[in-house]
Amino acid sequence: MAEPQLSVRSAKARDLAYRLARRENRSIADIVERALESYEIREAGREPAAVFYARLTSQAGVDIDLDEIIRSERSRHAGIDL
Q: How buried is residue 48: exposed, middle or buried, by Cβ count under 10 Å (0-12/13-18/19+)?
């Protein structure tokens, strides 16, 4: 039975996979699989910023203005004594 094939229509992706496969002495399929696994691990569990802030606001119940808090705590430095 023939193995499933992945068709890549991007010349840049194909060339990059080919170069990496030659440099790593691996098959193109192995390079693509490892790259996709790495991408999945890196991106899994992340949520978009808008969703994160909406969830944070709904959990806290109050929208906090961090810029205002930072501005209120700042004070002018007197400079160095000469």
A: exposed
